[in-house]
Amino acid sequence: MTVPEPTALNIRLPYAQVEEAIAGMIEQMEPGDRLPTEPALAKHLGVSRATLREALRTFVERGILVRRQGVGTFVASRIPVLETGLEVLESLERMAKRFALATKVDHLEIDERLATPEEMTRLDLAGTNPIEVLTVDRVITVEGTPVADLRDVVPLAYLRKEAIGDDFGGSVLDLLLQRNDLMLSTSRTDIIAEAADPHCAARLDIPTGSALLKLTAQLYSYDEKVVDYSVSYFVPGHFKFHVMRKVVR
Fold first, then answer.
1. How much is the pTM?
2. Which residues contact 235 (CB under 8 A, 6 or more apart)?
């Protein structure tokens, strides 16, 4: 496809209009199309490269554009926003199925080893001898786009490596739910925004420093034991989380 050239302007645009101009150009492009170079785009819009770079960054953080170091800036694939309520625990795989979207597991790494001191604390086992745990690291793609980088740490008493077959769809939660002898109760989840480090950025194919939504969770059984400790990084622009809150009088 021929990428539309932005209209040349002789005046400097306010920042909001720079975003509008970029958004209008993106609407005429297809996923995978490359934007003009920063010098060319800044010249056509009549803005400084610093202003342009800041405007492009907002589109990158919303998942609309993808920057590839040394190559250029591209229009990201347009997958629907996955929306769910935080009061309900649901796997990413099941969430995507509700939207009839195809998911795939990339960068899958499975290991059985002794838990680290941090993991022992998160598993509510601080002060005891280290236990053996199963760690499952993977990236989940939706319609070919990396959207989440996930790590689960599970005591071997609840899940072992051989339980993860070739048809593993990426959800440790769903594997645990299949166990009839394990009654899951609640999940305590902390939510913060965090900049992507080089390792995570490479796995998610985003620039280092991009904003990510980080969820750190402890999954409890009915006997109040931590069954799973997980750290999940979600790429903004692909997810919308909401929560129902009660009014306190």
1. 0.69
2. 63, 146, 147, 148, 204, 206, 210, 212, 213
